[in-house]
Amino acid sequence: MTGRTTTILGLILLTGCYTGTNEFDQVPFGADGPGASGAEEGGGEGGGDGDPDASCLEPDAGFSALRRLTRHEYENTVTDLLGVSAGIDQLPMDARDGLFQANTTYIDQVMLSGYESAAGDVASAAVPVLDQAYACDEDLSDHACAEQLVDTLGRRLHRRTLEPEDRADYLALYERGGSHAEGLELMLGAMLQSPYFLYRIETTVGDEEVGLVDDWALASRLSYFLWRSAPDDALLDAAEAGTLHEPEELEAQARRLLEDPRHWRGVVDFHRQWLGLDHLDDAYKAPGIEFDADLRDAMIRETNAFIERVSTSGDSWLPTLLTSNVAHIDDPALAEIYGLDPESMEWGEDVTLPPERSGILSRAGFVVAHSHPDQVSPVLMGHFIRTRMLCQSVPAAAADIDTTLPDHDPDLSMRERYSKHVEEPKCAGCHVLMDGIGFSYEGYDPVGHFEGERDGEPVDASGMLVGTDVTEPEFEGPVGLAEKLAGSETMKECATSAWLAFGLHRQGNAHDACAYEELLEVANSEHDSVESLVMTIVTSKAFRLRRSTPDM
Fold first, then answer.
1. DSSP assignment, residue 226?
2. What sign for the dihedral angle of Cα 255, 259, 262, 268?
3. Which of 199, 203, 217, 194 is nearest to 68 (CA)?
4. Nearest to residue 270, comparing CAs of 62, 501, 77, 96?
5. How far apart are CA 302 and CA 504, in angstroms?
6. Percent of the chain having pLDDT more than 70?
7. With bands split at pLDDT 50, 70 and 90, how would you rate the model's confidence at 26?
8. Considering just the CA atoms, what is the radius of gyration of the chain in Å?
9. Closest by CA position to 72, among listed 80, 61, 64, 63
10. If you average pLDDT over residues 43-48, what whole number do you get?
11. How far apart are alpha carbons 63 and 542 in whole angstroms?
């Protein structure tokens, strides 16, 4: 261990900032942390070493709170089922539960008004196209057609067969319309405001504390995991037949959904939320910095295409995500940011990026998403990687600490501008965890350009990754950081816990430890592709089970 590393660790311990490796305070899996229990040989939830933990043989799962559709899920559902735009700008902003958007919070009257307004607009736009998507037989009367549409649309929008009283209420609304079209608009608008549409309502088979989630809800769990949208008719048919909870049927349906192009919604949405790439959607930069909506959209397309490539390559997921330098670029301005000549490029073809780009951490979109409007921030970048990609915590600054950002001075290096962090003892212990990572982005500007020299001298992009299982913490630039993370068990365990939380639609806890252990076993195998990880989650007991009450 070098003298510098010893000093850094001493600062951390003295200030009480370092909280230990693998703390997983965002997605805990029990008192002993992730991996405390084993997975049963042969794919159950028990031990990977053939000596199953007895606790993993018992049904167990964490509690899933009632949750509203996210804006993205609402939009996809309306588009898929009705073929019209959802108008999600009227909907309330999504709330997070841990890493991911979940909308488990209460709603107020303003939120309700937004849902009412969106439902009216969607219904008004959708009724004229219902004749194409849900055409009734020509010999049916208007009322008989309305009855047919109530049954068809009701099952799809409620994601289960309508209860008789709901069916009667919708038909009563239809009859209040002055015409067939007006009646359908009233009926559809009410369906779009129903709790059965807006909420992911789940019930448990039987009265046990932990039991199988009912097949209708299981269909929604599967479709909203993979498609971020409602179940299709084939999935609803399996739910209605009562066969979806059978492991073979569930696996077959999951593989069918994975063959549909819509499954990229789930894969992309996982990466966008986990990696903070959703911050790109409303990113802006300071006046004088060339950055507009077209360039931002090009970055979104490029990162999405990269995620799709990583997920379809069949290679090991995490190392490919962190180290691949292949990109699909369709915008000249973005090509120039990457140091490529737009005039010599063959548009539509993949390109190999320069050596200072490796994996997602050095993509322009990632840099933009985790920078201030006027400068790259070692604190933002380091804090994000430390907490989101290593699952470790960094305490908030004390109330008496001045957190004012240093002015951006192009004549000063990032280290010089943020020198106060190491000069002030109350700051140093925590900031070494963040800044030691973030300083590796020296040379990048807030739009993602890279300049390897300043005043004719190479920039100092050295970094330090302490407090993990990495034995040699020094590295150079984001490329070196990516290589360290790609070989880190801490990173792999954290990423695995993120996948599980996303797939189970809840923050994991000790009750999900066996499902986590099973997924980690796959992540540590040679079959650690995205498809393998997804299928392991879907076929786990935790995916099919529901705990009826939260832990107190």
1. H
2. positive
3. 199
4. 501
5. 28
6. 85
7. very low
8. 26
9. 80
10. 38
11. 10
Q: Annotate 104-170 with three-state secondary structure.
A: CCCCCHHHHHHHHHHHHHHHHHHHHHHHHHCCCCCCCCHHHHHHHHHHHHHHHHHCCCCCHHHHHHH
How far apart CA 367 and CA 287 sit, in angstroms, is: 18
Q: Say how far apart CA 45 and CA 520 lie, in whole Å.
A: 12
Q: What is the dihedral of CA 538, 540, 541, 542, to 10 degrees?
A: -70
> In sequence order, what DSSP letters do the residues of 347-377 get, joined into one string?
TTS-EEPPTT--SGGGSHHHHHHTB-SSSB-
Read off the amino acid at residue 435. Answer: D
* Tokens read off for 42: 């042969």
Instruction: Indicate the domain borders of the chain.
Output: 1-53+287-524, 67-200
Q: How far is CA 484 from CA 277, 356, 465, 470, 528, in A?
A: 21, 15, 8, 7, 19
Residue 123 one-letter amino acid = A
Give the model confidence (pLDDT) of 150-198 as tens digits.
Answer: 999 999 999 999 999 999 999 999 999 999 999 999 999 999 999 999 9
Two tokens, residue 113: 């008004």
Cα dist from 464 to 22, 89, 151, whole Å:
18, 42, 61
Instruction: Identify the pLDDT of residue 136.
Output: 85
Q: Residue 546 pLDDT > 50, yes or no?
A: yes
8 Å CB contact between 191 and 157? yes
pLDDT reported for residue 45: 38
Enter the tokens of residue 206.
């039987």
pLDDT in tens, 430-449: 777 788 899 999 999 999 99
